Amino acid sequence: MFKSVTEPGAIEHLRKKIDQSILRPWQERAIEKSLAKIITDGETIIPAEAVTGGGKTYFGVILAAKLLELGRASRIVTLAPSVEIRDGWCSDISALGLSASCELKAIGDVVAFSSTYQTASGDASKGGTENGARALLKLVDKNTVLVVDECHHPERMEGWGVAVEELSKRAGYTIALTGTPWKTTGTVALLDRFYDEDGKLDIDIRYTYMEDLAAEGDDRATVPAHFIYFDSISVCKADKSRTEFVAPTSGDDESWQALADKDSTEPLTPHVQVKDGTLASNSMARKMLAAGINKLDLCKGRTKQKAIGLVVAKSINEARSICDYLVEEDEVATVIVSDDDTSAKTLADIRNGKVKTDWIVSVGMVSEGVDIPAIKVIVYLSGITTLLFLIQVIGRALRRINKNKKGEKPSYIDNQLEDTPAYILMPAHPVLLHVGWEIEKDIRQAKQDRKDKGKGDGGEREFKEYENIGGNNVAMMRRNVPLPETVDRMLTAIEADLDGKKICTAAYRKWIYDLVEDGEAEYVKQELEDKIKRFGIEIETGEFSKALTYDQQTRALKKAAVRLTNSLRFGHPNYKSIRDDQEAFRRVRRDINKLAGISDGFARSTIADKERWVEEARRRFMEIQYG
Fold first, then answer.
1. To which H or E segment does residue 200 belong?
2. Which among 138, 181, 201, 455 is least buried, having the fewest CB atoms inside 10 angstroms?
3. Structural domains of the chain, ranges and CATH numbers in brackets
């Protein structure tokens, strides 16, 4: 580890590391353009914008290292808004063979020093000290590359902005990075000239969400987001005033534009507040969480059970209430809040896979700088409607899930654009609608760009028709991953049997496909093996399925029950006209309990009772869909 770039072999080693670095095409272009601005135009400030997950940190690391390699600087100093982001910079620079530290005691003995805005400003309320601020001022000089990460932060914190301004004046070069290109309250004078009249960064070193979605293969770092909005009505007890949020009835621009308003001042807080773990006072919150659970089940099937959900709550107490509610719904949920000293470690353990959970419930700790690509569902129950916070939260779900370790060439678990999309569930507040509408426009444009380049839209699926015994044809979505060979053979054998083909309807096949896609292939094998034994069908095999554990059977049956309950609630004439979701779902469960002969509820039933419940629900669903 080199403590100075003047040490023998240091520059040669750094050059080799830079040459070996794996850069995305946009990073290569951005570094080349940045160096041209510096060398040819004499520019000393390089602002750059990149979408969350796009690799702006690595771009900054390599650009700063190139300036050291070219002899234009001898030291790197990075500033970040949090300890987690700070430590990430320290780690990435160390990987190049340069000594790096976050400790003040080592400040003069390393090539790279990573710090925070709190330290730079001496902000005692945030853990900073005057000694730290003075030490940074003494360290930074014309031989320093100053990297200002998430540069929108010092814009809105006066003390931070003053500190950045002073350090930048002393530094030889400043690299200002952001994933949030809108100007916020306050200012950092050094960046003023880079904003247009609408308050948006007007720079040519940028990599947008739309560009990334249109990128080829493993050069793409993000997934498309799908926004799901929920109606809500709030009545003030004091003056009986009423506010109502209405979700668009269709996905067309006209419907969205009529309801979206980025300048709306309507309060969101009354619509998202919850009072206890039953969420009895907030039917919208219950709807959103129920839909979130369904979407997470779907995402788990698409991500080999890696997907995680995130609930953003209004307050710490409400986060705990929502966690209690999820636990009652048989979900594994973990609260991550600032008044719990263990939260930071727990969050790190979730990120590293040491702690398994279905849901993270937080207030603000899981936003900017938290890199957990497994987050694929977000339920937004916060009262905050600022653009900056919303973009940061949404960004948590946009990263692709990488199979390889950091530093290795990326290899993702998805292949096509729509393999592992993110789902963002929000109240239909006008500002939230505006944000979703803008992002959805980018996604549509990216898909069009992919078509124009001959790559398809990445979301195309192969469709195949199956004919049921009633003569009806139904188009069924074929998944990217085909049915396992044993499942396909068993289905074929059942269809060929005189009695078996009566149950092998299009709806039954769709149910089988859905379960396979959700990662429940072993349960499907067991289900089909039971049918083969029941009808006395002879088929060459041996044992198709391995015995499932109690937990595996319970999970698969629960998923089937949730899917069928939703299908009946929204598709059966007895339930779809009921306006109150809680009452509608209650009636569905009550009726199926009665048909299955269950008196104690699905969750407390035996495996045999659960199987009977699913069978009755599926039979009823098939009757309405296909007679």
1. none
2. 138
3. 10-207 (3.40.50.300), 218-452 (3.40.50.300), 462-626 (no CATH)
Helix axes 550-571, 506-517, angle to 10 degrees: 130
Q: Is 555 helix (H, G, I), strand (E, B) or coil?
A: helix
Distances (CA, A) of 475 to 110, 240, 463, 467: 63, 49, 6, 10
Q: Is pLDDT at 324 greater than 70 in this prediction?
A: yes
Token pair, residue 402, equals 């990488």
Query: What whole-number distance in Å separates Cα of residue 29 and Cα of residue 156?
Result: 30
- Which amino acid type is present at position 237? K
Q: Residue 282, Cβ neighbours under 10 Å: how many?
A: 22
User: In 3D, which of 65, 59, 86 has the Cα closest to residue 17?
Assistant: 65
Chain-wide mean pLDDT for the chain? 82
For 386, left (φ over 0), alpha (ψ -120 to 50), or beta?
beta
Q: How far apart are CA 11 and CA 4, in angstroms?
A: 9
Q: How many Cβ atoms are within 10 Å of 97's Cβ, its own excluded? A: 16
- Range among 239-248, 397-406, 560-569, 599-608 rated most confident: 397-406
The residue among 220 and 160 whose pLDDT is bigger is 220
Q: How confident is the model at residue 547 (pLDDT cuts 50, 70, 90)?
A: low
Query: 48 - beta bridge partners?
Result: 177
Q: What is the 3-state secondary structure (H, E, C) of 490-539?
A: HHHHHHHCCCHHHCCCHHHHHHHHHHHHCCCHHHHHHHHHHHHHHHCCCC
Cβ within 8 Å of residue 167, ≥6 positions away: 77, 79, 120, 136, 137, 140, 146
Element (H, E) at 114: strand 112-116
Query: Which tokens is 436 given?
Result: 């979703």
Task: Provide the b/e sequence for 467-497 (b: ≥16 CB within 10 Å).
Answer: ebeeeeeeebeebeeebeebbebbbebbeeb
Helix (H, G, I), strand (E, B) or coil at 437: helix
What is the reported pLDDT for 195?
72
pLDDT for position 457: 43
Q: Which two tokens stand for residue 534?
A: 């029941």
Q: How far apart are CA 220 and CA 210, in angstroms?
A: 10
Calculate the CA dihedral of residues 202, 204, 207, 209 and round it to 10 degrees.
40
The SS3 assignment for 391 reads helix
Residue with tokens 């979605």: 213
| Lookup: tokens for 58 | 């690595």
pLDDT in tens, 447-464: 888 877 765 544 433 322
**Statement: residue 321 has pLDDT above 50:** yes
Say how far apart CA 412 and CA 423 lie, in whole Å. Answer: 19
**Neighbour order of strands in the sheet with 422-427:** 225-230, 422-427, 375-381, 308-313, 359-362, 333-336
> What's the burial of 263, exposed, middle or buried (CB within 10 Å: 0-12/13-18/19+)?
exposed
CA 308 – CA 314 distance, rounded (Å): 20
User: DSSP secondary-structure letter at 106?
Assistant: G
Render 152-184 in DSSP notation, one character per residue. Answer: HHHHH-HHHHHHHHHHHHHSSEEEEEES--B--
Q: What is the DSSP letter of 576?
A: T
